Amino acid sequence: MDDLLREFLTETSESLDVADVELVKFEQDPNNAQILNNIFRLVHTIKGTCGFIGLPRLASLAHAAETLMDRFREGRPVTTDAVGLVLSTIDRIKLLLQHVEETEGSEPEGEDRDLISLLEAMAEAVDAPAGPPPPAPPPQLAQTLERPLLPGELPLDELDRIFRETKVDPITPAPVPAPAAQAAPPKPAPAMPKADADATHAAAQAGEAHGVAAQSIRVHVGVLEQLMTMVSELVLTRNQLMEIARRHDEPEYKVSLQRLSNVTGELQEAVMRTRMQPIGNAWQKLPRIVRDLAQELGKQIELEQVGADTELDRQVLDQIKDPLTHMVRNSADHGLEMPEQRRAAGKSERGLIRLSAYHEGGHVIVEISDDGRGLDVARIKQKALENGLATEAELAKMPDSQVFRFIFHAGFSTAQKVTNVSGRGVGMDVVRSNLESIGGTVDVRSRQGEGSTFVIKIPLTLAIVPALIVRAAGERFALPQSAVEELVRVQAGSDHEITWLNNSPVLGLRDRLLPIVSLGALLGLSPERDGRDEALWERALIVVMKVGHQTFGVVVEAVSHTEEIVVKPMASALRQLPMVSGSTILGDGRVIMILDPAGLAQHAAARGGAAEEVSHHGAGRQSRASQKRSSLLLFRAGSRDLKAVPLGLVTRIEELEVARIERVNGYPVLQYRGALIPVLYANEEVQRVAAGTQPMLVFADGGRVMGLVVDEIVDIVEAELDMELSPSNMPEVLGAAVLSGQATEILDVAFYVQVAFGERFRHLVRSSERPRLLLVDESPFHRDLLAPMLNGNGYEVTACASGGEALARLGTEDGFDAIVSDVDLPDMDGFALAAAVRGDPRIREVPIIALATAQDRDALERGRAVGFTDCVAKFDRSGLIAALKEFTGRQGIAA
Cys bridge to 652: 206, 321, 626, 698, which one at CB 3.0-4.6 A? Predict the structure, then answer.
């Protein structure tokens, strides 16, 4: 039985019971207009609801009874037979409802002409008495409108009149014998035989005892809240008793306490079910909002809802209504394009906003997705730079997923103008705050030109949650288990070890690097651990937690146990604490703080770097980069920690004679191969030897050559470069990765070149004779890898991130001698780019070198068919240089 039919049966049964009582009162006090109006309203509602559900037989019965009640409202006399006839009609309706319930929506076969004829005859036969006229009904006050009517609206008086005058089904009245003489008084209307009426009433009463209405009752929300509070107190008492049982080994109490614990758990689960509501209740207003927005914005929008029956706690449901509304409005305004723009992009004119909800591991996941334009990464970076949220160097190294998070900052908006819908920079930060206040998270995925998806993760309930009780600095705290991934003990000989990056500890966990923080130090209860004192980190116990897509570790002293805790709100003076979400009472009566996983994640990111886990199964730039193997030069500079640079960026490795170093304006320089080049030390800790030799890496970028002095060359390795951490205060470091089983810093060569030729010296070079290359690659890492290598080989490189940007460059700039393009591009792939170039008469002769990750014969044939001049492996440096020399007919001016 569906919910609509169940609700109809429950409400109609309640209305019929009220009508029963009111009719008896009305029979005793026929001049009471209030009782009469109440009965008429109940019967009228039953008639309208039956018509809406599609139950014509019930609607016809209710309509006939309504007609008779309307005669009473007009002042006709009320008789016992008339009231009895209406009561019999109500009993008949109850019987029919019983059959509808048993068949789950079908009326029984047959008709009710016998009862309808009696009602119609009674309505026609009832006449006004010859005596004084009945008192006129009290005059109805004219309706006063609170505001002017909008187009298409009707006042309530007019709406009520239309309902009363509307018949459900055309009913042909039974012929009534004509009176013998005009002056003769009308015959009394026939009444239902008493035996039949009693039988109908008895059958109706028997059916009521087992109906749907008898299976549910209406309870005030305040009663449920009080019941939940009492169950919470019972859970606390249960926990206290179990704690006593753990401290005192009394076998005679164990069985009873275990039974009490089980019953308490079952009671708690039952009460929690009474608070659960479908998330569709929070979606009810969204179709109207989307419809109004579509008209206001001039767009065609379709709203699709999936999983509306997913249940969660009523308190949580109330908290997410506003965030959901705002995010749907954002999708309609920012996400979906205008119809003409969608047509130009090859999309349907009707945009789609999809709401979906499902359960996952004690949480409810809500996704709001659209098939619109997606987030504009370049625009977000520009606004972040304008608002001072990040520097250019930081933005250049950020993955798109981290850039997207800027939209949740207060006052951040990429809208070109302020409208009634959006553009003021308020809303998304409130969305994040509201969700985090209930222990939820919000994340965003987007692909330009294809759409965006916002993923909300919220707990099922806020009242009673399972928690891990941990100890730090001698105090106990509760960590919600929903955020706990695993427990790790670091000890000698284990696969888990703590290493150091930028003087901050990181945990090596199954080829991943996770930032870790000490809980006691984070809360200010214990001093910061002394750097790399290994004794302090031996046998460290780490709780690995995950919030959104960020995984990190929290170092604790001990883990006591797990316990279902009752969440108590914080006092007003403590609600602003960033890492505490509430408090609870343990079984021993102690009050402890409940830690907020989202707050811990923010501090872990600030101290240890933002952990950007790269999914090996996901799509996008990170997954493609993780599958590429790179040649890397490992070395040490200033400490025993390994550092690395891509081998493709290194022009030469030299043994520098320290005595040859000279100085210009106080900065070290070196005469190298007939040119004067600046020399930099990798960091302040690199040794400055007074005599002898020292390793130096030579880098070349666009004719600019520099040397980087290090302490020791270690090795050259082939590895999948999967950077996971990016230190926020080390601009010379691109990130960190696990290479040869050890955490390794990947240095940013472009940073050192900028220091050498931007801050210290200005290099004068003529580039008019250098061949111009257009490099097209989505990945900033690969652009940074290839561009210096090509520059070092004498080519002037212009880099683009997409095929669309490359075509725009080719349309506005002249003089490109060759195009070097990745096959996998975001908006159009390399094949489409090649076809577009070959279709333009101005540039169709420009050689196009494709960069592929695998030698796929079909892909090679397809590439040549659409216009690729040659195809080389993405990391085949010598092959790329050879192809450029062959097909451009020019060799670069070597550094």
Answer: 698
Binned at pLDDT 50, 70 and 90, residue 368 comes out as very high
Lookup: tokens for 105: 């929506």
In the block, residue with structure tokens 């130096």: 696
The encoded tokens of residue 606 equal: 């600030």
pLDDT of 282 above 60: yes
- Backbone torsions φ then ψ of 793, nearest 5 degrees: -95, 15
Please state, in angstroms and rounded to a whole number, the distance separating the CA atoms of residues 549 and 692: 50
Q: What is the distance in angstroms between the CA of the first residue and the CA of the last residue of the chain?
A: 80
**Could you tell me the CA-to-CA distances from 549 to 6, 115, 442, 520, 640 in Å, in that order?**
42, 68, 10, 24, 31
Relative to beta strand 512-518, strand 550-556 is parallel
Cα 890 from chain centre: 53
Averaged confidence pLDDT in the chain = 76
CA distance 234 to 221: 20
- Asked whether 347 and 307 are in contact (CB, 8 A), the reply is no
649-685 residue pLDDT tens: 888 888 888 888 998 888 899 988 777 889 999 888 8
- The residue with greater pLDDT, 379 or 212, is 379
- Placement of tokens 């966990």 in the chain: 509
Cα separation, 672 vs 708, in Å, equals 13
User: Whose CA is closest to 515, among 726, 683, 360?
Assistant: 726
Chain position carrying tokens 């250019």: 392
3-state secondary structure of 664: strand
Instruction: Find residue 504's DSSP bridge partners.
Output: 501
pLDDT of residue 361: 59
Check residue 151 and give its pLDDT.
53
Residue with tokens 């070092």: 792
Q: How many residues does the chain have?
A: 895
pLDDT at 291 over 80: yes
Pick from 550, 507, 461, 536: nearest CA to 269: 461
Q: For the whole model, what pTM was predicted?
A: 0.46
Distance CA(860)–CA(882), nearest Å, equals 18
Q: How many helices (H) and strands (E) does the chain have?
A: 26, 34
The answer for residues whose C-beta is within 8 angstroms of residue 170's C-beta and 6 or more apart is none
| DSSP code, position 686 | S
Percent of the chain at pLDDT exceeding 90 = 4
SS3 content of the chain, % helix, strand, coil (to 5): 40, 25, 35
Would you say 363 and 458 are in contact if contact means Cβ atoms under 8 Å apart? Answer: yes
Count Cβ atoms below 10 Å from residue 311 Cβ, excluding itself.
Answer: 18
Please state, in angstroms and rounded to a whole number, the distance separating the CA atoms of residues 780 and 399: 9
Where helices occur in 282-344 by DSSP H, the ranges are 286-297, 314-330, 339-344
What stretches of 568-647 show up as alpha helix (H) in DSSP?
A: 597-608, 621-626
Answer for the pair 725, 608: CB distance below 8 angstroms, yes or no. Answer: yes
Give bridge partners of residue 656 from the DSSP assignment.
694
Phi, psi of 43 (to 5 degrees): -65, -40
Distance of CA 431 to the CA centre of its chain: 10
Q: Please, is 699 exposed, middle or buried when counting C-beta atoms within 10 Å of its C-beta (0-12, 13-18, 19+)? A: buried
Amino acid at 496: H
Tell me which residue has tokens 């306490």. 257
Span 56-68, pLDDT tens digits? 888 888 888 888 8
Query: What per-residue confidence (pLDDT) applies to 531?
Result: 46
Query: How many Å separate Cα 737 from the centre of its chain?
Result: 29
- The strand pair at 796-800 and 772-776 is best described as parallel
Beta strands across the sheet bearing 629-636:
712-720, 629-636, 642-646, 742-747, 733-739
Please state the separation of Cα 238 from the chain's center in Å. 36
Largest CA distance in the chain: 140
Q: Read out DSSP for 771-835? A: PEEEEE-S-HHHHHHHHHHHHHTT-EEEEESSHHHHHHHHHH-----EEEEES--SSS-HHHHHH
Q: Supply 666's token pair.
A: 């106080």
